[in-house]
């Protein structure tokens, strides 16, 4: 197993969990060593002339290409918009690079591009650059899309600003995207299909940042789910986190699907969910902005930052029956090609 | 054939020729309609705060991953650096997004990342953002890399500025990259293998722009080769172009390989060649900057802009034996997965 890990790339290396963190730490950071990359933020700050430009990228390889609540085109736009949004930016422009398998149906390409264009227009972001590559049949699986985005900073967010007593908010129900895709893949049918939460979050994040001081840090909970984000925040802030299971917003059918398939919703990807860490005195105001916004109707305060009690910062959950359990960084093998 | 074109994506849709131009005109521009994208420049100008940021992206799907003179990692860095360079920018930062096939050898990933890091460092560009996705065996062909780049404008270049009498310079021999890859694919062996010209051009373009006024426009001659770039320039400037065959810098073994395989070097991809259009009075000074630079030792004046004689702007070549022939936009099927 160890040997295999060292010699070949595994699916879990792309899963957003521990193995991916190792890959980045071992292979990427030492080679491209620079302060900006080292921070592992959702978007990097680049100085161009007098401006601070936020810059990010993501590739999308989701399977199936069309799912309840979205498709790879919408996802590619929303995913990169969200990386800018949670970094405290107003998204300005996107690039869109397509890798297409020969023989891919034009009608599907039309639908995907329509969807990407609609998603970009809806949040006022221009698609200003692109590229198209076609590979022969069998050399790719339909279509892969890579977006990059640039934005203008409107707030200075950092895990360095996080203090004990800070409050953790999520803007709605967890695990919807991952379970929508997984139940579709497994052919599980529900009376009302589970919908992905795929959405561009910048209208919400900008509204919160404009209305409230005291936002310390935000991150969208994609691959690796809420569990991965909370562990990343705990490690970076060197403080423990306590969350309360009964406070986690959950859609009942999503929970049912997760129970059936044996998944923990904390590990499951979201595509329209942001974790916000705020000063305690700002929490109620921020929660109100969220619950009044269509992207945050089910928002909730789910936990808080503690002083770290041990050598490693950990995430603990007070369970529904009053016990406590550690929420670990997921391994990353749960759901390949979830985004 | 017509039906097939409409219904499915063909390899030639990604070839940099006529079919790709159609795809972009039919599918992309109407959907993402905005002035910046409409210009179809190598990099888009985006206003962030008070700064004009140049922004571009490219996906790389080259096969084989390692070729004489480079590999997909070096290529992915140089390609995006070059799009910024020819747009009149000083490249500042890159993103690097990997799509990797499960089972890909770590040792190859190491070599590719080393090469990308080395290429970026050599031109002083920081890799500040990235993403890693892994797809299951058979869902991709080894590794695909998408880079995006941002840069700072140092010159305002546009085909609108092009006038009759302007001079066309290329910085060296043509077709080296395409023929290096193709001869490797076909298993053709030479005593001295043909080397790709894969190189980051920003040191040369910045040197020319700093030394010389009167640079109207630049474009790197990648997919579709010199023929595609000249046709794009002629169409955008609405002026004919005349080039002289005997002035085109060519490596003898590359010409021999092209003759053997039946290719026209004008249609063949380069990865370290820039076409510059300059005011006549600036040409000699620019040529001198090039020939004194390691990236332009074989630079030559290859032609000039004319008034347009007919309804469509055309590119004509004075052949070695004194005849004239039209240099057409390549169809784009010549060399799939050349970059």
Question: What's the topology here?
Answer:
The structure is a homodimer of 339-residue chains.
Chain A: H1 2-7, H2 18-28, H3 35-38, E1 44-48, E2 51-60, E3 66-67, E4 70-71, H4 72-86, E5 89-101, H5 106-122, E6 126-135, E7 143-153, E8 167-170, H6 176-185, H7 202-211, E9 215-220, H8 225-237, E10 241-244, H9 252-261, E11 274-278, H10 283-291, E12 300-305, E13 315-318, E14 324-326
Parallel strand pairs in A: 5-6, 10-13
Antiparallel strand pairs in A: 1-2, 2-7, 3-4, 5-7, 8-11, 8-12, 9-11, 10-12, 13-14
Helix pairs in contact in A: 4-5, 4-7, 7-10
Verbal overview:
- The structure is a homodimer of 339-residue chains.
- By secondary structure, chain A is α+β, with helices and mostly antiparallel strands.
- Chain A has ten helices and 14 strands.
- In chain A, the strands form three sheets. Chain A has a seven-stranded mixed beta sheet with strand order 9-11-8-12-10-13-14, with helices on both faces.
- In chain A, strand 1 and strand 2 form a beta hairpin.
- In chain A, helix 4 packs parallel to helix 5, helix 4 packs parallel to helix 7 and helix 7 runs antiparallel to helix 10.
- The model of chain A has no long low-confidence stretch (mean pLDDT 94).
- Chains A and B meet through helix 2, strand 1, strand 2, strand 5 and helix 5 of A and helix 2, strand 1, strand 2, strand 5 and helix 5 of B.
């Amino acid at each position: 197993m160890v040997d295999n890990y060292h010699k070949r790339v595994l699916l879990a290396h792309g899963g957003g969990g521990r193995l991916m963190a190792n890959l980045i730490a071992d292979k990427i950071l030492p080679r491209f060593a620079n302060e900006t990359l080292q921070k592992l933020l959702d978007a990097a700050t680049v100085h161009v002339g007098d401006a601070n430009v936020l810059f990010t990228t993501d590739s999308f390889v989701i399977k199936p290409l069309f799912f309840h609540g979205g498709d790879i085109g919408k996802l590619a736009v929303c995913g990169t918009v969200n990386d800018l949004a949670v970094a405290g930016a107003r998204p300005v422009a996107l690039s869109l690079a397509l890798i297409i398998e020969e023989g891919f149906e034009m009608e599907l390409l039309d639908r995907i591009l329509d969807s990407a264009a609609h998603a970009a227009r809806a949040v006022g972001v221009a698609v200003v650059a692109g590229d198209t590559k076609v590979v022969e049949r069998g050399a790719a699986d339909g279509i892969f899309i890579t977006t990059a985005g640039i934005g203008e900073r409107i707030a200075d967010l950092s895990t360095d600003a996080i203090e004990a007593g800070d409050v953790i908010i999520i803007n709605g129900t967890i695990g919807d995207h991952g379970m929508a895709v997984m139940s579709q893949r497994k052919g599980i049918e529900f009376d009302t299909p589970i919908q992905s939460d795929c959405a561009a979050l910048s209208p919400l994040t900008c509204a919160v940042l404009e209305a409230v001081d005291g936002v310390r840090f935000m991150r969208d909970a994609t691959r690796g789910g809420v569990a991965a984000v909370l562990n990343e925040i705990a490690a970076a802030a060197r403080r423990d986190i306590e969350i309360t299971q009964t406070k986690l917003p959950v859609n009942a059918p999503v929970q049912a699907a997760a129970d059936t398939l044996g998944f923990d919703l904390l590990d499951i990807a979201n595509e329209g969910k942001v974790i916000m860490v705020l000063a305690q005195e700002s929490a109620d105001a921020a929660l109100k902005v969220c619950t009044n916004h269509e992207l945050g109707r089910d928002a909730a305060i789910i936990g808080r930052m503690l002083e770290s009690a041990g050598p490693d910062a950990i995430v603990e959950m007070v369970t529904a029956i009053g016990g406590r359990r550690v929420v670990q960084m997921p391994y990353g093998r749960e759901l390949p090609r979830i985004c």
